Amino acid sequence: MFKLPKLHYSFDALEPYIDAKTMEIHYTKHHQTYVDKLNEAIKGTEFEKMEIEEVLKNINKIPQDKKQAVINHGGGHANHSLFWEIMGPKGGGLPKGKIAEEIKKTFESFENFKKQFTDAALKVFGSGWAWLAINSKGKLEIIFTKNQDSPLMNNLNPILGLDVWEHAYYLKYQNKRVEYIASWWNVINWEKVEENFKDAKNNKKRK
Question: Angle at which helices 177-184 and 110-123 pack, to 10 degrees?
Answer without folding.
Answer: 140
